[in-house]
């Protein structure tokens, strides 16, 4: 049963931060040169009292708590006898003393069930036991209103950022044992050479773990023969065992559980609403100089209304910008007669995201050349989708799409060789017009499972419960002399989110029109 361990935290009068020997709690960025926060004893005494009693209720475990517990059990079984440290991470600085919105590291959220409401600086620790692991979630609990942290610390004080949860509330909510962050110092002091950490989640914690492992290894070397240590004691040496932890956590996410699949459906549904919102504002986008930003803003508004935020920077690429694969400046004009490529996804509060692309004729109708290119891309997407089922190899999805891309570009006379010649591994002339891959796994990261081994990813066998994209495209640059002038500046991508079922596949985003005729009818209906 999950329990809550309360760790008392004493506050320094000048900073309101915990008295801890290590850097697990850091002072807020300096503001003393411009601070006007009162510091008199009279003020401190007055602001610390006469507050209504805080009624604290411990919530029942959230829906995903049982799924997170099962995931933790699998991780425990994979690393018997080893301490595992999975940080949530800390806010990333945007400028001076302002940060980007915090998003917990995906591995941390996957193993805790804590999503958009995660506490920055939290750390999940697997402590080895004879029967597996004891798991504890460490985070910085809110300070009392009698502490100047409450009103004088703009990074974590509730007067500044709003209510924060107690240890007991988080323990009940996530069904996991919790402890104050000050107690995490003892974990660092206990680190040995078998301890593993998710390095990319929090550089400061990774450095603390590295230092502690080096100290442990050095002490062992002085007292025993440590040549069989799992880790080198060279400073800066590659940490392959840490990479193994990241690899296992990535590969666990290749097959989604029922909760994850439901979250993906919610993300796709919200994304569809975002695309429909964009259609309703497309005419307004044509009336301003930087119309792409109208498109971006409209979609991002939907993402904030129906989810946490966007799952990645929205690509609103109009005209020739559509030939730039990751165009996110979105500062171009939206001109009738051209296409606009919208690649966008809503990240819901559980942090699962959709990733969908549609390419739309801004005037509502495709030109002959635009329709030709669009339908070729759609044909490639359909060919890839048609082969998806458990048992195929993941890379074959890309190969199916490429057969169509090679065939069509050869028919149009764009290639110096036949489609058959172009498809040979030593040639691939058709890839000039589509240099990216056709599919990637999707989930709590837009490019999910990124640290999985090649034999589990590109060369892996497709299984029921996997979710990935199918997103072929054709991109004809404005200065590409291998294509006729009337095709230059046309960029088309169609991207859908695919769930592998027991005997085939389901296109989760099929509700967003896909064929050229459907897109034109959809746009006409939205415009009235």
TrEMBL record:
Checking InterPro entries in the record gives: Aminopep_P_N, Creatin/AminoP/Spt16_N, Creatinase/aminopeptidase-like, Pept_M24, Peptidase_M24B_aminopep-P_CS, X-Pro_dipept-like
The record's section on Pfam families has: AMP_N (PF05195), Peptidase_M24 (PF00557)
What Enzyme Commission number(s) does the record list for this chain?
3.4.11.9
PROSITE patterns, alphabetically?
A: PROLINE_PEPTIDASE
**Region labeled Disordered — which residues?**
1-42
Catalyzed reactions: Release of any N-terminal amino acid, including proline, that is linked to proline, even from a dipeptide or tripeptide
Coiled-coil annotated residue ranges, if any:
none
Keywords per UniProt: Aminopeptidase, Hydrolase, Manganese, Metal-binding, Protease
GO MF terms on file? aminopeptidase activity
Q: Where is the composition biased (Polar residues)?
A: 1-10, 30-39
Q: Which residues form the Aminopeptidase P N-terminal domain?
A: 63-207
Enzyme class (EC, first level): hydrolase
Q: Which Gene3D superfamilies match?
A: Creatinase/methionine aminopeptidase superfamily (3.90.230.10), Creatinase/prolidase N-terminal domain (3.40.350.10)
Q: Which cofactor does it need?
A: Mn(2+)
Entry similarity comment: Belongs to the peptidase M24B family.
Q: What is this protein called?
A: Xaa-Pro aminopeptidase
Name the lineage: Bacteria, Bacillati, Actinomycetota, Actinomycetes, Micrococcales
């Amino acid at each position: 049963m999950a329990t809550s361990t309360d760790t008392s935290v004493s506050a320094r009068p000048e900073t309101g931060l915990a008295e801890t020997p290590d850097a697990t709690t850091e002072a807020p960025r300096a503001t003393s040169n411009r601070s006007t926060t009162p510091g008199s004893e009279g003020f401190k005494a007055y602001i610390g009292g006469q507050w209504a009693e805080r009624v604290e209720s411990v919530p029942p475990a959230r829906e995903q708590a049982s799924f997170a517990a099962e995931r933790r059990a699998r991780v425990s079984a994979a690393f018997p006898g080893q301490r595992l440290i999975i940080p949530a991470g800390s806010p990333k600085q945007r400028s001076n003393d302002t940060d980007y919105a915090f998003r917990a590291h995906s591995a941390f959220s996957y193993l805790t069930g804590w999503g958009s409401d995660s506490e920055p600086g939290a750390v999940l620790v697997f402590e080895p036991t004879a029967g597996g692991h004891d798991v504890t979630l460490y985070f910085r609990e809110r300070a009392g209103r009698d502490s100047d942290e409450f009103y004088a610390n703009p990074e974590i004080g509730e007067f500044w950022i709003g209510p924060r949860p107690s240890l007991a509330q988080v323990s009940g909510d996530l069904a996991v044992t919790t402890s104050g962050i000050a107690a995490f110092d003892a974990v660092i002091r206990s680190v040995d050479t078998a301890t593993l950490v998710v390095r990319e989640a929090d550089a400061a914690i990774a450095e603390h773990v590295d230092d502690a492992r080096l100290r442990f290894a050095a002490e062992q070397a002085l007292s025993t023969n440590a040549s069989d240590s799992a880790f080198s004691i060279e400073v800066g040496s590659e940490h392959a065992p840490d990479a193994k932890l990241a690899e296992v956590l990535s590969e666990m996410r290749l097959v989604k559980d029922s909760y994850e699949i439901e979250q993906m459906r919610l993300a796709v549904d919200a994304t569809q609403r975002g695309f429909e919102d964009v259609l309703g504002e497309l005419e307004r986008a044509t009336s301003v100089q930087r119309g792409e930003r109208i498109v971006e803003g409209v979609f991002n508004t939907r993402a904030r209304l129906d989810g946490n935020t966007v799952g990645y920077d929205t690509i609103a690429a109009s005209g020739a910008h559509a030939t730039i694969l990751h165009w996110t400046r979105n500062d171009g004009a939206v001109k009738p007669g051209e296409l606009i490529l919208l690649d966008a996804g809503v990240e819901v509060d559980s942090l699962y995201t959709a990733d969908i692309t549609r390419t739309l004729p801004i005037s509502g109708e495709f030109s002959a050349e635009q329709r030709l290119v669009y339908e070729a891309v759609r044909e490639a997407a359909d060919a890839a989708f048609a082969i998806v089922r458990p048992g195929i190899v993941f890379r074959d999805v890309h190969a199916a799409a490429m057969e169509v891309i090679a065939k069509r570009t050869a028919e149009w006379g764009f290639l110096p060789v036949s489609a058959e010649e172009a498809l040979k591994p030593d040639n691939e002339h058709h890839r000039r017009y589509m240099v990216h891959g056709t599919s990637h796994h999707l989930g709590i990261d837009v490019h999910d499972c990124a640290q999985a081994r090649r034999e589990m990813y590109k060369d892996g066998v497709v299984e029921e419960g996997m979710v990935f994209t199918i997103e072929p495209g054709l991109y004809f640059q404005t200065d590409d002399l291998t294509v006729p002038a009337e095709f230059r500046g046309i960029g088309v991508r169609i991207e859908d989110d695919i769930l592998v079922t027991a005997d085939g596949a389901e296109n989760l985003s099929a509700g967003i029109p896909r064929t050229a005729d459907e897109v034109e009818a959809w746009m006409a209906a939205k415009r009235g």
